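Lecture 7 notes: from sequence to structure.
We start with the chain below.
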Amino acid sequence: MQNSVDIITYFRMYPQIFTFWSVISFVFGCCIGSFLNVCIWRVPRGMSIVSPPSHCPKCDHEITALENIPLLSWIFLRGRCSACHEPITIRYFLVELITGLLFALIFLKVVATGEPLTLLLPFFVMTAILICSAFTDCELGIIPNEFTYFGMICGILFSVLLPSAWHQESRVTALLLSLVSLGVSGGLMALCAVAGKKIFHREALGWGDVKFVAAAGALTGLPGALFMVLAGSLAGLVGTPFLRLIPKYRKRRTLRFGPFLAFGMLVWIFFGEALVGMYLQILN
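Predicted structure tokens for the same chain:
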């Protein structure tokens, strides 16, 4: 805690350094967003994220380094391939922008609340996973295992390497917290999936969603995973009637829960502790 206070004091003394790292967080997030675009397109389709190099899916034109600068390339190319001039979906631009903004806001939030800077790494990874999961679930109705298993592995590794992110000094204690959070959150969601199928006689909750919540538990803890489900459920309850107004989503029989879960986790990352504190005050 003392180190966190020292960091806040340091940034107050040197605001230009704070601004510098905020910009770096945004730029870093945009670069990660560029990679996430590759994952969103290739992973659900069983393609390698390493080869072949980035190319236009319509004419196979290989994307050059100048055409692969986050945000700027899409703007300068006016959203079109330089070779065949076919439109490039705006998703590429949006994913880069959203990732950059979220990374910068997470940095600001962690510093402003005096939390350990080691918390940035699990939050960044969680953000990357929720962006990939939300877009693939929205577009294709699946959350690939590669995303969720990566989150689980990272959560376990970070608990050992960065126990301060769990507000613990003991690596063993942090590891146990991560494993228990993964198991309990995933187990509860699995029970809901099984019970839902028996009650409604069809799949009420996808196993991708179950693993998504388990990964959130491993990275952010059991309270974060449970809040994610609660807030995501409420968002789905409110948002689904509006989605039905869009022709594209009108005929879908099942709710694609991934984007709503992602929203719930973002609420937890930025406002979770404040909301829990307000709730406890009401109880007292």
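Points to note: The radius of gyration is 20 Å. The CA atoms of residues 50 and 214 lie 27 Å apart.
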